[in-house]
Design a protein that fits this description.
By secondary structure, the protein is an all-alpha fold. The protein has 17 helices and no strands. The chain starts with a helix and ends with a helix.
Length: about 425
């Protein structure tokens, strides 16, 4: 029954987007149909077809192994502080538990360096090109926005540099797609953080996060094109474009540049968490005082924290994607929390819920992983609008104009990816990691 609810949720979410569309009369149905088909076919292949399941497990095991190897440098620098929970070093020293700063953040540097190398040798441009050509041909969108959306599956804000020559002449709809794809997906460099946070409670988390990245890219295009349909004439409509790339002179330079970029990203993550956790705590303190009085005056029992208030907003959407009612309140709070505190904090709270057995149905955790997998939060909106604006300052006003709509589209895209995954949920070991 819940699988059918998830399947229906795919179309309900698109209907919500259509009701908020800037122009309901010119929606490109080819984008919607093919974008949805791509997601369903991919999910069917991964979760139902035996060969797809084997690939899923292979990717999961490979990522876990790479993360384990990546910890070598971290353990050398930080010693026992870098040991994952329940492990020992070669001298018998035991882990001090999970410490975010010493175990999760350094992996960003390693993965960013690895991605730099993969770009240098040509593997990433080749892989991204496959997805870009698929999006352009089937959905008939511009080559530039296809390339950017495909890049976002693997990298973050830096993917905008791949389409730098085309930014100046982009339409508002193209800008919306570029921003939506950025906020609906996650960079490979931060996947390691989520894996380290949830691996103990969800052993196949790595495979699911990769699956979510692939699903949200076409979902982002669909939601973006519904909320802000194309009314102009894109310069690269239907054309395949090659990524703009300033290639490093050597393998070593690519590794160094990648590590440097990863360091900046790690510092950015710390900055956002410190600032936003503090600001939200302050807001909750203010709201809590007023909430206690209102509850007493009106005889209510409401949660007046920002997380709680946003949880009420997302509660209907949580039911729509197929989360059982017994867990919908908790999951809706996590989705609401992601909007203001980033997906990292939401994944940490999800891990805590799973660990203490607060969720009644394993389906709930499964759907939450997909619904939370994206940079769809307020801080990310500022980062992406600012990042793209830096590449094309003359279009800053246009980017700022479509930014809020792109954040809405990105949020709906992550929920759509969860609904697609929920359509094929079966409770098997591959899904739950048992």
């Amino acid at each position: 029954m819940y699988n059918l609810i998830s399947f229906a949720g795919i179309f309900i979410l698109m209907a919500v987007a259509w009701s908020l569309s800037a122009n309901r009369k010119v929606v490109n149905w080819r984008v919607i149909i093919w974008g949805t088909i791509i997601q369903l076919v991919f999910a069917l292949f991964i979760f139902v077809v035996p060969a797809g399941s084997k690939i899923f497990l292979l990717i999961n095991d490979a990522l876990v192994k790479v993360i384990d190897v990546a910890g070598a440098g971290t353990r050398f620098i930080f010693g026992r502080l870098a040991l994952p929970p329940g492990t020992k070093d070669e001298w018998g020293g035991e882990s001090l538990g999970f410490i975010f700063a010493f175990q999760a953040l350094p992996t960003i540097i390693f993965f960013a360096s690895l991605m730099g190398i993969l770009y240098y040798v040509g593997f990433m441009p080749w892989l991204i090109g496959i997805f870009a050509r698929t999006f352009t041909k089937l959905m008939r969108i511009s080559g530039a926005e296809s390339l950017c959306a495909a890049s976002e599956i693997f990298v973050g804000i830096e993917s905008s540099t791949a389409i730098r020559p085309y930014l100046e002449k982009m339409t508002l709809s193209e800008f919306c797609t570029v921003l939506t794809a950025g906020m609906a997906t996650v960079a490979s460099s931060v996947l390691a953080i989520y894996i380290l946070i949830l691996q103990k409670e969800f052993p196949t988390i790595a495979g699911h996060l990769v699956s979510a990245s692939f699903l949200t890219a076409p979902a982002a295009i669909v939601m973006s094109k519904i909320l802000l349909p194309e009314t102009g004439q894109p310069e690269t409509l239907g054309l395949h474009v090659k990524p703009f790339q300033e290639k490093e002179s050597s393998f070593i330079e690519a590794s160094i540049n990648g590590a440097t970029a990863g360091t900046k990203l790690a510092v950015g993550v710390v900055t956002l968490l410190v600032a936003f956790l503090g600001l939200v705590a302050l807001a909750d303190f203010i709201f809590a005082g007023a909430g206690v009085k209102l509850n007493a005056l009106l005889g209510l029992n409401m949660d007046w924290s920002l997380k709680g208030l946003l949880g009420y907003v997302f509660y209907p959407f949580t039911l729509v994607i197929g989360v059982p009612p017994s867990d919908a309140v908790e999951i809706s709070k996590l989705i609401g929390e992601r909007v203001i505190l980033t997906e990292t904090k939401s994944y940490m709270d999800l891990a805590a819920l799973i660990e203490k057995g607060a969720l009644h149905d394993p389906r709930s955790a499964f759907l939450a992983i997909y619904a939370l997998c994206g940079f769809a939060h307020v801080a990310s909106l500022a980062i992406f609008v600012g990042g793209v604006s830096a590449l094309v300052p003359s279009r800053t006003a246009d980017l700022s104009k479509v930014g809020p709509r792109a954040l809405l589209a990105a949020t709906l895209a992550t929920l759509m990816a969860a609904a697609v995954a929920g359509t094929f949920f079966s409770g098997s070991s591959i899904l739950l990691g048992k």
